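debug: dumping io for the single-chain case to check the tokenizer round-trip. Nothing else runs in this session.
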Amino acid sequence: MVRPSWLNLRCNRGNSMEDVIALIVYLGLPVIFLIGGYAIGKTVENRHFRDLERREEIYKRIVRMTTKRIPSNWHANDPILVQGQAVIGSDYFKTFASQIRNLFGGRVRSLETLMERARREAMLRMLEEAREHGANAVINIREETSTIGRGYGRQGLASAEIFVYGTALKVS
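debug: decoded output
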């Protein structure tokens, strides 16, 4: 059986410096990459949340409803189907954390923000299309969510796809 060199630590043979370097390379670098992945992923995620808040402020006046029928006191014109879609990919740290969590079971909280970001982004894209058509209300809003999963093979990262659609109206 061939053992990795970092398992063959020999303190009294004169190569202790090589053993320390091997230990740093085999154990230290993965930890550094995980910490770096966490920091970069968190920065990108926080930047996206700030952008979502800014854009939601722009579209807050568009009325959104999940009901199929408009209220009886509304006078609506020009119905049109509007849609928004978003695919948000995970970072390496969240993927690693979700794999560890899957070993023990339970909620994978690291991917909940991924779904929230995708849902909000898709909704904003739908509202943007409604605004382009001059609508001030969207009714019968529906949402389709794909499974969060790995890509093809072992190389893929977790991702979330959300498709939102509804009927945009000009209400007076």
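debug: round-trip ok. The mean pLDDT is 84.
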